[in-house]
Amino acid sequence: MCPTGRTLASTTLTSSSSSSDLRPAFDVLDADRDGKISKDDLRTFYAGFSSSGADESLIRAMMSAADSNSDGFVEYDEFERVLACQKPSAAGGVMEDVFKFMDRDGDGRLSHEDLKSYMNLAGFPATDDDIAAMIRLGGGDETQGVDYAGLLKILAVDQVS
After folding, report:
1. How far is CA 6 from CA 17, 23, 41, 138, in A?
2. What distance in Å separates the CA atoms of residue 69 and residue 78, rounded to the nearest whole number?
3. SS3 label, residue 146
4. DSSP state letter for 5
5. Which of 8, 52, 138, 159 is close enough to 124 for a disulfide, judged by CB 3.0 to 4.6 Å?
6. Residue 16: per-residue pLDDT
7. In this predicted structure, what is the pLDDT of residue 159?
């Protein structure tokens, strides 16, 4: 549900029954929205950061570390288990990567266009009013957008809704 009260789509960032705060990070990595992270999902995610994408050996290592049942995919429980075993800052690192992915111009802030572009890419069409409400909710304004802390505020509301 958007901060304006409008529902974006039948699939939301909070479709899980889990109350974990890692769901938004998982959903961003799950590019094809099939409920599991594949090597292709990771390639798609890292392509948004760099023209060269991610190193294939890095992707293989990430999959190997997280895919505990060796089925070639990382399901949410595996993702959560891996991050829960890390230092508390590990989840922050994942969310920082999500922020960098969304921050297309790399200015350290999510503008109206950054948010709208990401929402459309993720399959959550949002109106300009929805985006403006998200920015306000994150403590930002239309000219400056929101910073990383603002994104975390926006995601916290999505988890409660």
Report:
1. 21, 21, 28, 17
2. 9
3. strand
4. S
5. 8
6. 37
7. 39
Residue 25 has which token pair?
């990070």
| Percent of the residues in the chain that have a pLDDT greater than 70, as a whole number | 72
- H helices, E strands: number in the chain: 8, 2
0.70 surpassed by pTM: no
Residue located via tokens 């997280």: 66
Count the Cβ atoms, other than its own, within 10 Å of residue 145. Answer: 23
Structure-block tokens of residue 53 = 């994408």
What is the spatial distance between Cα 136 and Cα 139, in angstroms, rounded to a whole number? 5
- The b/e string for 14-38 (b: 16+ C-beta within 10 A; e otherwise) is bebeeebebbbbbbbbbbeeeebbb
Name the token pair of 137: 């909710």
